[in-house]
Amino acid sequence: MPRPVWSGAISFGLVTIPIKVLPATEDRSIHFHQYHLEDQGRIRTRKVCELDGKQLSNDEIGRGYELSRDALVEVTDEDLDSMPLPTAKAIDIVAFVPADSIDPVRIGDSYYLAADGAVAAKPYVLLRKALERSAKVAVAKFAWHNRERLGLLRIKENAIVLHAMRWPDEIRDPTELTPKTIELDDSEIDSAVQLMEAMAADDIYEYTDHYREALEEIIQAKAAGKQLPKPEGEPEPAGQVVDLMAALNASVQAAKESRGQSGESATVHEMPQKKAAKKTTTAKKGTAAKKTTARKTPAKKTSGRKPKSA
Prior knowledge:
Layout: E1 6-12, E2 15-23, E3 64-68, E4 71-74, H1 77-81, E5 90-98, E6 107-115, H2 121-134, E7 136-144, E8 147-156, E9 159-165, H3 186-198, H4 210-223, H5 244-258, H6 286-303
Parallel strand pairs: 1-5
Antiparallel strand pairs: 1-2, 2-6, 3-4, 5-7, 6-9, 7-8, 8-9
Helix pairs in contact: 3-5
């Protein structure tokens, strides 16, 4: 586990649980440096005063709020530390709510909360078991990085997890993005549900970051002076969906075949037969040709022309 990023306590009514906060996730992305193409010199970001052009170190840099173009209010670390906030050194639980009442859009970074010392073990386990038995999650307030935040506490494999959450007024309203009223048949919705069932999975741990793997191969090949790996095949361009039901049928069949299931019973909707496009042929033989000619005869007679020989 990485080093703790914060230490304090969980405030649970009159119960106090000393805890340490550790990041629950890690960034596995590949990061690049910027460099000068001509001589491969590193490009770095430097903090420079715009008045005298002097490069500054962190201990020479202050913090302030700009009231106007010529007025700046300095805010020091001491000012922030002395604010009368009950959440300054505590994760203060304010409510317990059903887990499904939390909008996932509001959930941000995740942290593990570890009991800090032997004294904290019992109240830590007490809170964990109470959350498990109630099937609820805890909503809490805490202050990190110079701002008060809203958090969500839940249980993951016997550990208490803290999810940072956005305040309600930080979530944009998506109303204007929703499509206008669209008419759908029940058969179309049923087909979409059947596709979802065909694509159902017990977990998502089998998925990996193929982009990162491919990027690692490129870096290794270039470092070793080898030829860059080539893609196995060009992806087919996505065509315009003309028939939604046909696309759903094909998707269900593909999903079942990819899981080793038979595709014979994959059709979810009886599609009406479409009229075949006219084809230029050199000869028409058999019963089908005769039926076609018979259907066309009345139209030919009204025009006063003899049908062309096959």
